[in-house]
Acyl-CoA synthetase (Streptomyces alboniger), 486 residues
Amino acid sequence: MNDPAPAAPRAGAFDEALRFGERSLTYGELAAASGALAARLSGAHRVAVWATPSLETAVGVVAALLAGVPAVPLNPKSGGGELAHIVADSAPSLVLAEPGVELPPALTDLTRLDVVMDVREPAAGPRPAVTEPDSPEAPALIVYTSGTTGPPKGAVLPRRAIATTLDALADAWEWTADDVLVHGLPLFHVHGLILGTLGPLRRGGSVRHLGRFSTEGVARELGAGATMLFGVPTMYHRIAEALPADPELAKALAGARLLVSGSAALPVHDHERIAAATGRRVIERYGMTETLMNTSVRADGEPRAGAVGVPLPGVELRLVDEAGEPVPADDPEAVGEIQVRGPNLFTGYLNRPDATAAAFAPGGWFRTGDMALRDPDGYVRIVGRKATDLIKSGGYKIGAGEIENALLEHAGVREAAVTGEPDPDLGERIVAWIVPADPRNQPSAQELASHVADRLAPHKRPRVVRYLDALPRNDMGKIMKRALPR
């Protein structure tokens, strides 16, 4: 990776770098295992990594970075068609995998290389130099998007973008070598792999991966000295649900230095429940595969429910209207699309110059497709995706996110999603999709409409309410609105 900031603290060879369950590696052992593997990757075009939540995945990615070979993390839960597309598109030379793990038929034509933990002779020096400068624009990772509007696209992430983002987060979060991070995030996404694994290694600290998220694991690791927790809204929702009956979990969270949520908006009612039980507020950040991290609430800033903070160092951010013109900066109710530019951006979509060109506005601004409001002090509030969450009803532009938060404040609502559908009079009518807290006593449509109108404005109330047993979500806990029944 490129190293635009002062060199990160060096960890000693015997300091713990990675822990997955009962297995761990010191920095010396990580250097030995990844160095030996890197030597075997020399000359490879690209390598795929079967990204199970394991030490092997972390070592495989570090080895690829050391070898200067772009790594393509693969989601073990992906279907055969999606995997076949990714393999054909990225054309890796081989696939790195945990020994003994069975690979699907879509990968049978790839040469397999098992990641073996040969740590009989740990390196005596400091941590492996995965964050030292090589070629700033050289591709480090190719991470595939979710493919909600077509086949997944491979976002090419250069070393420059990864280092820039991690150093900006270190500034915002006061992240140091003394921090111990705990999380249970998957390692085929930016959140768990770059922020949650390479982040601690760049700082010289350590990460304790839960393997599979559980509130018991969070309480155990934070209670045993971990200082930071990364999670997605689904995880924090489970924490909020467990807190009333789990004083040890409340105590562990109260002792953490930083609780961070990302990958989707954290509902306000979960913010408030966690704060009430622990005295600690979760901070949010905002990023994408193509941009890595754009904004965050700072460690020394004000945690504000429903806000993702201010732009990170080096990131330029603006809100624009449908004509591409900046929305008035002095109007906190003006909704606009977020566009960003800076050294945190990807270099393009692999093999897709057309999609790359379409993703950028003149001047190098990346079109995120996310709609937001901006407070007078610069805090950004995301209200939804342009394609699915911006509802044009009765002449108003309405963000689905603020309605969802209002609905979640109702005691009878467990989960909520808001969409728009065609209406001959309004243009679009607001539709609420509700998972009731008690299916036997679900709140009526009129009750929910009045609840929203009392908190926001009458034109933001849902005109239609539909009830479900559960909302469709992806691996990161994001609601998949395109999968809602029609």
